[in-house]
From TrEMBL:
Chain ranges of the DDE Tnp4 domain: 109-263
Keyword field: Metal-binding
Organism: Hypholoma sublateritium (strain FD-334 SS-4)
Name under which the protein is recorded: DDE Tnp4 domain-containing protein
Any GO MF annotation of the entry: metal ion binding
Cofactor(s) demanded: a divalent metal cation
InterPro entries: HARBI1_dom
Entry's transmembrane regions: none
Pfam families reported for this sequence: DDE_Tnp_4 (PF13359)
């Protein structure tokens, strides 16, 4: 799979650090990056285990992650070439077959907080008073084939989901691309943190709901839940991201590593077809198609 990923990711034959003139072949560089993200370890322990000198390991992993993000970030910014109107309409039918009362919901949107170590400066900016922790916030859109099709972030952990959505510019993408082949609007479904908009739906709110409204909320909750699973999968596959003491905003490229981890998680979904595509019975595309 490493050789398959190296080719699919279009990595150059050698990953070079121009400042120090060190380099590694692309297979080793990708293995270094995956080892860095997989589990939190001290660089000295990795050096003892694999023989990779710590500064060399750190530089190569950073450069490899930066290359992957620069080369493939458009895949996490919505790819209209793959996600055509016909494909989005197919997603709507998949959600409907799973129990959604509507066949125009084609994706699920939600935000997540990634806990960080307390910064030595400007702590208040990233402090979330609801969760009582220092963190960065991201929001993501999940399709029923288990792939993250849009990510925005990081923003400081104090921001509300609705605020992050407005900052992301996602509404412009929805207005441009979220239409069925016959011209009907398509929608994302979010939790109570979002407001109903031109291409956004959310549960019915209020202290008193009718039976039909409660039934709608219940049926939609069953198809909204997997967006929580994708955040769990990222942290399970790449536990380095879940070790807050290593996530030092002023010292570590936390956001870069998280975005690359999402990209790698999409690749893992394609290669192994885990829980989410099985839940929706929706086969993800091949690596080449993605």
């Amino acid at each position: 799979e490493i050789h398959q990923l190296v080719i699919a990711l279009d990595l150059p034959l050698y990953i070079r650090c121009e400042a120090t003139r060190i380099f590694e072949d692309r297979e080793t560089a990708l293995c270094m990056l995956l080892r860095r993200l997989t589990y939190p370890s001290r660089l000295v322990d990795i050096e003892m285990q694999f023989g990779w000198e710590r500064t060399r390991f750190s530089r190569i992993t950073h450069i490899t992650a930066l290359f992957l993000w620069t080369r493939w970030k458009h895949l996490l910014r919505f790819n209209p070439q793959r996600l055509s109107r016909e494909k989005l309409a197919h997603f709507g039918r998949v959600f409907s077959e799973k129990g959604a009362p509507l066949d125009v919901v084609v994706g699920i949107i939600d935000g997540t907080l990634q806990k960080n170590a307390r910064p030595v400066r400007n702590q208040r900016i990233v402090f979330n008073g609801w969760k009582h922790m220092h963190c960065l916030k991201y929001h993501a859109v999940l399709s029923p084939d288990g792939l993250v099709i849009h990510v925005y972030g990081p923003v400081n952990g104090r921001r509300h989901d609705e605020t992050v959505f407005k900052q992301s510019g996602l509404s412009d993408l929805l207005d441009k691309h979220f239409w069925s082949p016959d011209g009907q609007p398509l929608y994302l479904y979010g939790d109570l943190g979002y407001s109903v908009g031109p291409h956004i739906l959310c549960p019915y709110k209020g202290p008193v709901l009718t039976f039909e409204q409660k039934k709608f909320n219940y049926r939609m909750s069953r198809v909204r839940e997997p967006v929580e699973w994708i955040f769990k999968e990222v942290n399970q596959q790449f536990e380095f991201l879940d070790f807050s003491r290593s996530q030092k905003i002023l010292l570590t490229p936390c956001a870069l590593f998280y975005m690359v981890a999402l990209l790698m998680c999409n690749a893992h979904t394609i290669l192994h077809v885990p829980q989410i595509p099985q839940y929706f019975s929706c086969q993800p595309p091949s690596l080449e198609e993605y």
